[in-house]
Specification:
With 99 residues, this protein is mainly β. The protein has one domain: OB fold (Dihydrolipoamide Acetyltransferase, E2P), CATH 2.40.50.220. 10% of the residues lie in helices and 38% in strands. Strands 1-2-3-5-4 form a five-stranded mixed β-barrel.
């Protein structure tokens, strides 16, 4: 799973019949400080996420394991909207020291 932020929407009126009704969102991967990493993915939304929300997304064969994406041609799926991150102070200090 990856942490990301929804930064946009992809509109597609013509698509594979297994994807009819799917919403495609553009997701920017984030680090634990919510800072953007390079690159983005277009992910199928299985939880009703929207632009600006912090989400968890999966890629590869794991993306086809949700109820909505099972047996569909999907390589990335949003499967959770993040409410809060709790990070141990010890781990955070270790990260700061390593950088």
């Amino acid at each position: 799973m990856h942490l990301g932020k929804v930064i946009g929407t992809v509109w597609s009126t013509r698509k594979d019949e297994k994807l009819v009704g799917a919403k495609f969102l553009i997701v920017q991967q984030l680090d634990l400080d919510y800072k953007p990493k390079n690159g983005f993915v277009v992910a199928v939304d299985s939880v009703g996420a929207g632009v600006g929300e912090i989400v968890l997304f999966a890629q590869g064969s794991s993306a086809r394991q949700t109820t909505f994406t099972k047996d569909k041609p999907v390589d990335a799926v949003i499967m959770a909207i993040v409410d809060k991150l709790d990070i141990s102070v010890k781990e955070k200090l270790k990260e700061i020291v390593e950088n």
